[in-house]
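Try this one yourself first.
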């Protein structure tokens, strides 16, 4: 490899302006495939969910899945698109072993949904991402390369094909080019995919699991000198986590800036993102539309969704995430900054469920963004995978509010809940964590502390109330931390005044 100037990210975005674009594939959660009645369940034995249609056997004829068309229209409506009153499926011709028909049924110049947008928020600012089109197609099968160390075709001794996925309805959502993002391009790309995932999850048309491949993202990136025409773009394929979306854009900006700084040219090509190294590597040179020899699919009737049907679907759309967040923020009485930290932590739904379970919004936020976020961070776990349910958090706060435990004990109780010892109430009982609320026992501990610290007691008697802290500490120590510090303080001051 020839040596290329290695710029820092800051140098790259100071010298060049990025233009990004995102193509996202979403596998729909329909019960059956796009053009046949085969089931779509994930994880079945290979090649058990196939039939003559999705295997491309001679003479088999496709029939379009109404539920998939409906889901696509709903996605289009949620993304503020116009729904085409008429359109046809098209054949995209190419050979690939995981595609038994040697063509894919897709949509070409007559997509179902066009010209919409999705607003995403970055640091309290709204960025509008234009949506070029949303179209419906069928997924391909899956190739498995066996015998090599990497699972890639190079070095494999044999390759196997599983056609269970062939023909599963796939929606492709293509943004318009997004210029003007500057140094925030990677962040904005990630925010867009996050928001899109949340919208689709809200519509309940896909489980949008990036790690299982039911949502996959291709990221287009190009660079130009300020004021110059847009540069040649590359397409980084199948980026399969939110974090990778951000890293892929960032690394591609750095790479292209290095090439351009050396006077080189960017080649229009497909690249692959590598999780381990965080960079992209050249794949194949990019085909153009003419290579695919698109033509209208002759085996399917045109799509002509009735205006009344579209209006019905639009009226029945659920509350979308952005609107929901605004409503919750006002119900919870959070400032913009409070809410932003909740969104950034991915805790909106957790807090919402905790409030529904009876906690106040402020206490729910305190636990999820405080102690629980800290533990998630320490163990590199997601908040919702910690093993603590919103109901447990609400119960914990209830115990604090009732004076049964204090904040410090509550953290110990959480430890027990995370360790799988049961609900907060069960952990309190099993570990004997309930605070000492028995007046007699507390009074004795207070008297002992005063007797053991006569100098401090004298100071408090003289009006130096701040000195009482040392006595409170002594009582807390004597009770193993199981006293309510505020009550103890009151008792001490009452005793010494
Ligand atoms: Zn089938």
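Now uncover the answer:
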């Amino acid at each position: 490899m020839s040596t290329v100037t290695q710029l820092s990210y800051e140098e790259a975005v100071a010298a060049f302006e990025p233009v990004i674009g995102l193509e996202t594939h979403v596998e729909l959660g329909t019960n059956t495939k796009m053009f046949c009645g085969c089931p779509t369940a994930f994880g079945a034995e290979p090649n058990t969910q196939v039939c003559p249609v999705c295997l491309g056997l001679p003479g088999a004829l496709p029939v379009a899945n109404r539920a998939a068309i409906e889901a696509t229209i709903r996605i289009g409506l949620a993304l503020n698109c116009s729904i085409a009153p008429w359109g046809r499926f098209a054949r995209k011709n190419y050979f690939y072993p995981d595609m038994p028909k040697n063509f894919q049924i897709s949509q070409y110049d007559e997509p179902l949904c066009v010209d919409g947008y999705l607003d995403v928020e970055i640091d309290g600012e709204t960025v509008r991402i234009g949506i070029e089109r949303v179209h419906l197609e069928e997924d391909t099968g899956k190739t498995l390369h066996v015998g090599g160390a990497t699972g890639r075709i190079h070095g494999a001794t044999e390759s196997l094909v599983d056609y269970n996925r062939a023909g599963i309805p796939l929606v492709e959502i293509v943004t318009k080019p997004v210029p003007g993002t500057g140094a925030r391009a990677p962040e904005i790309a990630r925010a867009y995919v996050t928001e899109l995932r949340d919208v689709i999850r809200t519509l309940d048309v896909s489980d949008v699991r990036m790690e299982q491949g039911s949502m996959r993202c291709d990221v287009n990136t190009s660079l130009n000198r300020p004021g110059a025409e847009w540069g040649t773009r590359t397409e980084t394929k199948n980026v399969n986590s939110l974090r990778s979306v951000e890293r892929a854009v960032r690394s591609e900006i750095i790479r292209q800036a290095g090439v351009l700084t050396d006077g080189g040219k960017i080649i229009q090509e497909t690249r692959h993102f590598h999780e381990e190294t965080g960079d992209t590597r050249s794949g194949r040179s990019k085909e153009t539309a003419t290579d695919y020899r698109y033509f209208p699919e002759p085996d399917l009737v045109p799509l002509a969704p009735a205006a009344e049907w579209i209006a019905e679907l639009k009226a029945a759309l659920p509350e979308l995430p952005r609107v929901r967040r605004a409503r919750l923020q006002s119900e919870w009485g959070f400032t913009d900054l409070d809410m932003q930290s909740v969104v950034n932590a991915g805790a909106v739904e957790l807090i919402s469920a905790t409030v529904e379970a009876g906690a106040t919004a402020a206490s729910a936020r305190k636990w999820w963004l405080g102690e629980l976020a800290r533990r998630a961070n320490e163990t590199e776990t997601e908040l919702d995978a910690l093993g603590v349910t919103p109901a447990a958090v609400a119960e914990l706060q209830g115990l604090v509010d009732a004076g049964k435990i204090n904040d410090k004990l509550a953290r110990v109780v959480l430890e027990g809940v995370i360790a799988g010892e049961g609900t907060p109430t069960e952990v309190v009982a099993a570990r004997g964590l309930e605070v000492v609320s028995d007046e007699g026992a507390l009074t004795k501990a207070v008297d002992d502390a005063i007797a053991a610290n006569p100098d401090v007691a004298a100071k408090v008697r003289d009006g130096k109330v701040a000195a009482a802290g040392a006595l409170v500490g002594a009582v807390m120590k004597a009770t193993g931390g199981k006293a309510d510090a505020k009550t103890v303080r009151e008792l001490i001051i009452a005793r010494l005044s």
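Discussion: The domain at 439-496 is CATH 1.10.10.410 (Arc Repressor Mutant, subunit A). The pocket of zinc ion is lined by residues 33, 36, 38, 50-51, 53-54, 167 (CB under 6 Å).
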